Amino acid sequence: MKVTCIVGSARNNGSSAYLADKFIQGLEGRAEVKKYCVGDLNIGYCKGCKQCYITGECVQSDDVRKVVEDMLSSDCVFMVAPSYWAGVPGQLKTLFDRTTPYGDTNPNRILKASKPIKGVAVAVRAGTREAENTLILDSIEHYFGHLGIETVKRISILRTDSLPDLLENHAEQIDEIYLLGKSILFL
Ligand SMILES: Cc1cc2nc3c(=O)[nH]c(=O)nc-3n(C[C@H](O)[C@H](O)[C@H](O)COP(=O)(O)O)c2cc1C
Description:
Layout: E1 2-7, H1 15-27, E2 32-37, H2 52-55, H3 64-72, E3 76-82, H4 90-98, E4 117-124, H5 130-147, E5 149-157, H6 163-169, H7 171-183
Parallel strand pairs: 1-2, 1-3, 3-4, 4-5
Helix pairs in contact: 1-7
Bound molecules: flavin mononucleotide.
């Protein structure tokens, strides 16, 4: 069993990273785990050249391929993103854009999932309006969909501008994510 966790934040020590670690704790060593924080990755912007529609590969060589390879060879992908201006952070959006060679809209894609993959989407934001997290969860689910990853759970966490906010006010949701890690491979 293999699980890939994507922390969709600029930073690897905030609320998103904490939630990914909770999920991993829940797995209790039952899976090989790959964890990436998009803020730590070397990912160039998509150039929009569409060469990947001809070759199935990007003209740039950086961290994207290995991250996507890990996702597509996993049994489960856990992706958590904070809201940045009511959307996913630019670093995560750049990963989405650069996944175009491997998405199902690419007629010449050479890398794709060979088995069912479960997806878990989590959104975290400072504000209180649910609709903003819905945009982020929709964005992750859209991305998952084009990679053949079935979203089995969406979790929205509001009123969280810092890790202390998360720890003080969202014990139930933290536990939910831990328990999801415990059960995900049996779902
Ligand atoms: C550049 C930037 C833009 C943000 N924009 C929003 C926003 O539009 N709405 C919101 O509710 N929170 C916004 N936030 C707050 C983050 O969503 C919040 O601090 C989140 O908990 C950060 O998650 P992290 O600790 O995983 O980085 C923004 C934070 C940053 C750094």
